[in-house]
Amino acid sequence: MSAETTILLSMAVPLGGAGLIAVCGSRPNLRETVTLVSAATLFALVASLLPEVAAGGRPAVTVVEMMPGLAIALEVEPLGALFAAVASFLWIVTSVYSIGYMRGHGEHNQTRFYVCFAVALASTMGIAFSANMLTLFIFYESLTLSTYPLVTHAGTPEAMRAGRVYLGLLLGTSIAFQLLAILWTWNAAGTLDFTPGGILAGRVEGPVVGILLFLYVFGIGKVALMPFHRWLPAAMVAPTPVSALLHAVAVVKAGVFTVLKVTIYIFGLDLLDGLDFNQWLAYVAATTVIIASLVALRMDNLKLRLAYSTVSQLSYIVLGAMLANSWSVLGGGMHIAMHAFGKITLFFCAGAIMVATHKTEVSQMRGIGRTMPVTTFAFFIGSLSLIGLPPMGGMWSKWYLALGAASTEQVVFVAVFMISSLLNIAYLMPVVVRGFFFAPESTDGSVTGGDAPIREAPLPCVGALSLTALGCVVLFFYADRILAFLQPMLGK
Amino acid sequence: MIAEHLPALQVVIPLMAAPLCILLHRASGAWFVSLVASWCSFAVAVALLGQVQAGGPISYPLGDWAPPWGIEYRVDMVSAFVLVIVSTIGAVVIPYARASVEREVPSDRAYLFYCMYCLCLTGMLGIAITGDAFNLFVFLEIASLSSYVLVSMGADRRALMAAYRYLIMGTIGATFYIIGVGLLYMMTGTLNMADLAERLPAVAETRTILTALAFLTVGISLKLALFPLHLWLPNAYAFAPSVVTAFLAATATKVAVYALIRIYFTIFGGIDVFETMAVREVLMGLAIVAMFAGSLVAVYQNNVKRMLAYSSIAQIGYMVLGISIASVTGLSGGIIHLFNHALMKGALFLALGCVVLRLGSAHVRDLDGIGRRMPLTMAAFVLGGLSLIGVPLTVGFVSKWTLIQAALERGWWPLAVIILLTSLLAVIYVWRIVEVSYFRPVPEGAADIAEAPASMLVPLWVLAGACVYFGARAEQTVTIARAAAATLLGVSP
Fold this sequence. Notes:
- The structure holds 2 protein chains of 2 kinds.
- By secondary structure, chain A is mostly helical.
- In chain A, 73% of the residues lie in helices and 3% in strands.
- Chain A has 18 helices and 2 strands.
- Chain A has a two-stranded antiparallel sheet with strand order 1-2.
- In chain A, strand 1 (60-67) and strand 2 form a beta hairpin.
- In chain A, helix 1 packs antiparallel against helix 4.
- Chain A starts with a helix and ends in a 6-residue tail after the last helix.
- Chain B has a domain at 278-493.
- Chain B has a two-stranded antiparallel sheet with strand order 1-2.
- Chain B is 77% helix and 2% strand.
- Chain B is an all-alpha fold.
- Chain B is globular and about 75 Å long.
- Chain B contains 20 helices and 2 strands.
- The two termini of chain B are 32 Å apart.
- Chains A and B meet through strand 1, helix 5 and helix 6 of A and helix 17, helix 18 and helix 20 of B.
């Protein structure tokens, strides 16, 4: 099978899967089989592309020529391949987890849930493989639209309100800022193709570069840069698998992925090097890192705490992109994978706790480690990875990000990374500490000293979260391979 | 032999069909005659576009009276494109009309409906094809008078009042237009557009010509419902039979916009009215207000027909904005939006017609869960709505892309921002309907309703499909629109 076919199939498979899921709606077991088969096929397809990309190949295919010079086109390059691989692998895991979660939690409208999930994954693949900014924009919007029904899944007035915030902020910023930036780029450069070294160098200069960069970075609302971050906590009303895969991996990573793409392939690091504008944005990102961590500290609801943690971690990558040197950008690219595994583990754990004990607040989680040891231990692993401690994958991305800041002698940003690590400890560890070292509460609220029986979430949930926790450890040992894989995107 | 007389046939076929409808007197017979006439007109229009693309503008002296003394039919890129737009909508709407008219128009008056439809089609095709300023007035009145009748056939009694208001406003517009033409004739002694274009520059500095331009602008602006002369439109659209709303929304305002383009770029082609007569400031200002006001008011409408009517006012703003930019890209943006908006508004109103057929109402509160009860209809509605917003891969995106590029080319970036902001308003009013129809439960105890009949669904999906097809493959339409704009501005594309 040629690489071109594989690229097209990687979008057709989840879409076809969505169709089949809709058809099989009345037979849950068959429906879930379709989801799993599509997920596994998708990952196999993406994986089969990796060797060629690693060898320097850039398989590409043009889908349709919209207007003269403006095409819907796909191309696989290292960053996109990594993003696609992570997202498609985690889709398999999340599908397994969803089966346990959705059934264990007795959710309604499960067919719509799985259909939208598959469409969202197809959009994610489209984003990852976009060959130009317009194609990326189209899939970016379709990802927003396809995840809206997932956010409002509960159908309650609260969920509908959250859905409006979600849609309003994501569509609003993308149309008002991002689309304007895209049009402006087209007007200035006459092309929107992602080109190593950028397309804007020599075409725009002075303040226009800064305005464009601001329009792009704030227009990509999915990176949740403050003050446009409110949609992410709002999206937490969705069922946990959605929060886990989409709002810790696919959607938000699509955002940072786009920022990296724009930085590397539209502006080019050389153009940004030594400009003031990205410096200002770096400060915005650094502020977001710190403030979001502080807000996370104050959140008692575990999912909200994790959401604010995501807001903060996303800004790591934005910060890396805005520092615009090769170490920080590579670190940012790696962080897409590292944070994905860490955060999805944490969300899986939060969901497992909710399914098994119906507890959602951190303050309720005393002694949870005794009844759910596997889940709590996985939470511990995921936390370590997020904090950036060895032997977890998260250490490496943070290392390179900090290295990038240090290599340009910007001590402020090194300090931001370090302070943020401390804050990570402060908001993640209490969950583990409460879980393992505090005595559990009995049903009447009094503290009991005795041993509670082990009561984990359904097996698919526990299996999934153990696997992603294991992934955090495995990534620690394979970080150099990811680094070598990403290196060519800088054109060196 | 026939190929030579296509320009005349374009108008004569539907004109002859109208009395035939009366003679047949039966709804089904009249319908069939209109169907044949519409489809023939469509074929003629496509053939004309082909001829113009291959061999340049066609001049056809009516009755062999040589212009400028006789009436000249003149088909160039712009008129051929508008002919195709109007006749396409006619050809798509008429198969749809049968079931819808049966439900909404009393059967003893159905043949009159078809007769008026044929006359209306005649008028609009005539406006697009004529090269004579007075003849344009005649066709304008044929189209307008027949559309007053069509609007008044709405089942709701308020349709009469709406038609009456439309009549008053429309007649004022026509009067203004004819006064303008009279002033031009006074100064130049000719009514032929090409001839006018040659003679006007010599007298361009006179106050009479300035007055004439003002009268022409106001008159046509009334017809095309440019803010603040739009007051007739919302009620006329809301209370007319569904078919009529779809047909008029997709064509009537378009030919009026075409007439405006003709006035500025052909009749006044020798004078730069945008720079010397302050046309740009006026048009652009009004267009921007229309874009905002129309969209804002649309957000607060509870009758979906009215909502779409106000959205039309906003969309007309985009077309006029394109004209006011007056560069090749800007004008081509306006022209391409004529086509694109005809497709999307046509699709949206046809979808609404299906809903009205089954539900008897187009009120938001009755639409709960309609997406599940009429999935095919509402899916087409969503496609039309996405086009209205300007989502990529739909026709709306192509229009907005071109318009914004035109603004950026001139360095008017605030205009680009304004276009994007008004798109956001479209998101709000379209999404409201999506939320109601897909994310609300079907009301309990609601009667089971079937999908609309195939005779309505097929035309609906032709237009909805076209919204996507011409959104994804816009090369052809963009090329035609650019060529048209270049011809009008007298430069090479």
